[in-house]
Amino acid sequence: MQSTKTALVTGASRGIGKEIALELARNGYRVAVNYFDDPAPMVEAAMAEIRTHQPASIAVQADIRSSAQVTAMFQKVISEFGHLDLLVNNAGVQTWKPLLDVTEEEWDLVIDTNLKGCFLCTQQAARRMKDHGGGSIVNLGSGCNKLAFPSLVAYTASKGGIEMFTKEAAVELGQYGIRVNCIAPGSIESERTRQEDPDYAGTWSKLTPLGRAGTAADIAPTVVFLASPGASFITGQTIWIDGALFSKAQWPYKK
């Protein structure tokens, strides 16, 4: 029997987004995998892996900075799935540069992708969930929700904004049975973070109380939980998945 659970995950052709999509597929969700400018072979490989768990999953190309493209993406998802139970706002970018050197174009890229994209997708999802009896929205935050990271000014501003947007959306959308939560990962080893620091796992395992860096597989199960009946009274919250890294009194790391 085909699953009735449906999800859209933005930025899901690689990294944390891909692992979230995989975990949702393993748990019976038909998944719409959003991507923007990733190479076709990467997207095809991700979809092949996801479809081994849920053949009805689809790929949807869209730039989440564009309201027109976001609208078209949701129209395609609803056309394919009929309804949407879960939105995961995962897509994000960052620019490593001191505040005094950040250009307007770099600021706009990060804010428009991370924060505006979260807003546009949430609005489109909530309008449809409202008419379907409710749903769940999970936003991806960061340690930047809590602490200032040097040379990550636009990213920090966007992720702090996502945390407050999560709370606001939870308050306004609760009346429709729509729950909105935020997941804030700590040090997560990935292809991107290894490019930033070839010894990423070694660097962060020394700073993290649990003694290791996180992985995408540490994030995905919490998304499934937050969308489940077991989390039916959880909304407006930020869940930290950081090995207690951001519970420390001081921030000892510099890029």
Describe the structure.
There is one protein chain. With 255 residues, the chain is of the alpha/beta class. The protein has a single domain, classed as Rossmann fold (3-Layer(aba) Sandwich), CATH 3.40.50.720. The protein contains 8 helices and 7 strands. The protein has helices at residues 15-26, 40-51, 67-81, 104-132, 153-173, 191-196, 200-207, 216-226, and strands at residues 6-9, 30-35, 58-61, 86-89, 135-140, 178-185, 238-241. Strands 3-2-1-4-5-6-7 form a 7-stranded parallel sheet, with helices on both faces. α1 packs parallel to α2 (40-51), α1 packs across α8 and α4 (104-132) runs parallel beside α5. The longest helix is centred in the middle third of the chain and has 29 residues, at 104-132. The model has no long low-confidence stretch (mean pLDDT 92).
Summarize the structure.
This protein is α/β, with parallel strands linked by helices. 45% of the residues lie in helices and 14% in strands. It has a single domain (6-187, 214-247), classed as Rossmann fold, CATH 3.40.50.720.
Poorly predicted runs are none
Secondary structure class reads: alpha/beta
What sequence of helices (H) and strands (E) makes up the elements? EHEHEHEHEHEHHHE
- Could you say what the CATH topology is called? Rossmann fold
Work out the helix count.
8
Outline type: globular
Which helices and strands appear, and what pairs or packs with what?
Layout lengths: L5 E4 L5 H12 L3 E6 L4 H12 L6 E4 L5 H15 L4 E4 L14 H29 L2 E6 L12 H21 L4 E8 L5 H6 L3 H8 L8 H11 L11 E4 L14
Parallel strand pairs: 1-2, 1-4, 2-3, 4-5, 5-6, 6-7
Helix pairs in contact: 1-2, 1-8, 3-4, 4-5
